[in-house]
Amino acid sequence: MSSRPDAGAPGQATAISGGTLAGRAGRHPSRPSGTPVRWRDRRFRRRSGDGPLAYFMIAPLVVFIGALAIYPTVLTVVEAFFHLDPLTPPDHFVGFGNFTDAFSNPQVVTAMENTGWYALFGVVLTVGLGTAIALLLQRPFFGRGVVLAVVVLPWALPGVVEGVIWSWIYNPTAGVLNSVLKSLHLIGQYQLFVGAHRIESIFLIALVQVWQITPLAALVVLAALQSVPDELYESASVDGASGLRVVRSITLPLVRPALAIATVEALVMSLNIFDQVYVLNANATTASSIMTTTYFITFQDLNFGQGYALSLTATVVTVLLSIVIIKVLYRKVEY
Hints:
Blueprint: H1 10-27, H2 37-48, H3 52-79, E1 82-83, E2 92-93, H4 97-103, H5 106-136, H6 144-156, H7 159-169, H8 176-183, H9 198-226, H10 230-238, H11 243-254, H12 256-271, H13 275-281, H14 290-300, H15 304-329
Helix pairs in contact: 3-15, 4-15, 5-9, 5-12, 5-14, 6-9, 7-13, 9-12, 9-13, 12-15, 14-15
């Protein structure tokens, strides 16, 4: 019977083996002996981070956002409470004086009422037409890509360009609209459309912006429609539901988040309408908006204090109305 010099008692072998493994674990750089797992994970994340490099990489974006968004916002909030008029110096703190003077100005009151009409026409027409276009484009058909490209085209045009194009259409002497209406014997002579009547002018100018922002609403709703399971439509067809019932009971409830986004987008654009009004209405008060009035008060009258006050008011109203729309329309969808 041979003996092994390295053989020992089972307990001793186990202790030696455990001690060796413990020693190796203690020497392992990523798994120190007796260290909790949470501490090791924290140390691993600290070692794997980029450190100052990460902050250096995002610094340009932070500076860009701060220069274009944060700084102007802070400046507007502060300067709205100061008298800033180079024609009547010096500048001084006036509290809510700028807001009081602005809201007592008849032009500002008229512009606020007009902006309400712009928001009403813009939201209703944009969301309605955008949803209708999305429903038409929901199913594939021949030439669908071409139709989609044509629908998106107005969205790619600047607001000033669209204003100029539609000024040719609304032209009272050689406009396309007058020509078509006269050829159809709907009018006896060429007429002035923008500027003659208040609501008519607001509606016609709102149509220009609706033509621009409807494609975006259509794309948002169309993207939501693509995510609706076909099994729901098949079940409704088996149950004998009509097309209108399917849209009312299945399609619209399931795309409510998209409808909320499209409504907020239309509201923000309508409350801040400027380019189309400036091109088609100039400085007339007939169809002025709060943005054009703010522009003329600030840069024509050089009353920068009231301009800041009106800008801050428009921002606050836009944010509050957007929050209300999100609370009312937005619902989480579960299939």
